Amino acid sequence: MYTRQGFSSLPICMAKTQYSFSHIPSEKGAPVGFVLPVRDVRASIGAGFIYPLVGTMSTMPGLPTRPCFFEIDVDTTTGRVLGLS
Fold it and tell me: Could you tell me the residue range of the domain that residue 7 belongs to?
C-alpha cells in the first residue's frame, strides 16, 4: 500500500519492546529461533519513516505542524487566559 502511494523509499523504524530483539519482553537480550509477528504497519509521513508494530506496543499520536500554544495568550488587562476553549 505504501509503495503504491509513493512512499517506498522511506526508511523503516521498528516499534517493539525495548527489552528484547523479539516481540516477547520476557526473552531478554537477543534470543534465537523466533518468528517476529508484525501486527500492523503504519507510516509517519511527516517524520519520514514507516514503522511496523510488533507485540503489544502502544504508540503516541503525532504532533501538529503548528503547536497549540501559539493560540494561547493572557489578556493583560483582565488576567484572563485566552484560547483554551
Answer: 2-82
The domain that holds 30 is classified in CATH as 3.10.410.10
Per-residue model confidence as pLDDT tens digits over 46-57? 889 998 887 676
Contact by Cβ (8 Å): 43, 10: yes
Q: Does the model's pTM come out above 0.70? A: no
Domain count, the chain: 1
User: What contacts 24+ positions apart, CB below 8 Å, involve 17-26?
Assistant: 17/54, 17/55, 17/57, 23/54, 23/55, 24/55, 25/55
